[in-house]
Amino acid sequence: YEISVNVGIMTVLTAFIMTVTMKIKKHLSLAPLIDGFKAAFDDYKDKRRENSLNYTALDTALSGLACMFYKSESMVNFQERMEKKHHKNNLQTQFGVSNTPKDNQMRSIIGSIPSSQFAPVFENYLTRLQRSKHLAAFQFQKKYLVAIDGTEYYSSDKISCSCCLTQTKRDGSIQYTHKVLQPIICHPDQRHILPLMPEEIKNSDGIDKQYCEINAANRLLPAIRNRHPRMSFIWLADSLYATAPFISGVLDSNEEFIFRVKQGDHKKLYNHNETAPYESLKTTATGSKTTIAHR
Q: Could you give the CA distance from residue 155 to residue 175 in angstroms, rounded to a whole number?
């Protein structure tokens, strides 16, 4: 379970690093960002047996991050590349790792790390952007647009674990998956997005897709607020979240939202709009001859 979650998290972190390192500032170059990753493991207590500590959890996690950063097709492919001297030198120079465990051992060690261990890395990177004023470019009406959406990062009809989400297909076979609710900071005028720490969608969240995602969101939103108490948010989401209880939770936190609604999911709302008395509101922008009529 943890190996799937952590590999997914490191994939997101890699995207964050590759976005941030496009900046010119020295403290946003690769080396300081890797230092930020290392800092998250300062207080990590490895629970493996003492005779099994040939490779530290930090070095193994960094190796997994490097695997994503170098765009290796798989961990096996990554191991084969690291056997070549110049690739091994890059791993040592850029990530500070001299030796990596073999494929199966790497999976085992990464799987032993609690996914929550990676949360401070996202905070560290966002803080660096904030202090360098780069985060200000993502402000929208002095707030930050955070889009949330569920995404699947593992799927199999053969390999499963006790934490897998299950879906019975039409032919009666069972699909095993792992999914997260992924939040990103975005802006209509910015080409890049800034991912935040994802929230695992658990099989205890329910069977229905809507309840699964909303239950995960009820954990995610408070976690984001706690990690970034000085930031104000406008939440963006699809029609799954356009429900009275969820909207009330957002409003109770003095926040705003933009949720998509669909006719099939919100029949009463569409019926109300279609049967409501027609009232026209016309507006003309300053310096423009165009008049827009709103119903």
A: 7
16-28, pLDDT tens digit by residue? 777 766 555 666 7
Name every residue whose Cβ is closer than 8 Å to that of residue 227 and which is 6 or more positions away in sequence: 119, 122, 123, 197
Strand partners, 96: none
In angstroms, how far is the first alpha carbon of the chain from the final one? 51
**DSSP secondary structure string, 120-166?**
HHHHHHHHHHHHTT-GGGGEETTEEEEEEEEEEEEEESS---TT-EE
Question: Could you report the per-residue pLDDT of 79-99, keeping only the tens digit for each?
Answer: 777 677 666 677 888 888 877
Determine how many CB atoms are found less than 10 A away from the CB of residue 213.
25
* pLDDT at residue 267 greater than cutoff 60: yes
Confidence of residue 285 (pLDDT cuts 50, 70, 90): low
Q: What pairing do the DSSP bridges indicate for beta strands 143-156 and 139-140? A: antiparallel
For residue 181, the SS3 value is strand
Is residue 176 a contact partner of residue 160, using CB atoms and an 8 Å limit? yes
Q: How far is CA 77 from the centre of its chain?
A: 25
Q: Is 15 helix (H, G, I), strand (E, B) or coil?
A: helix
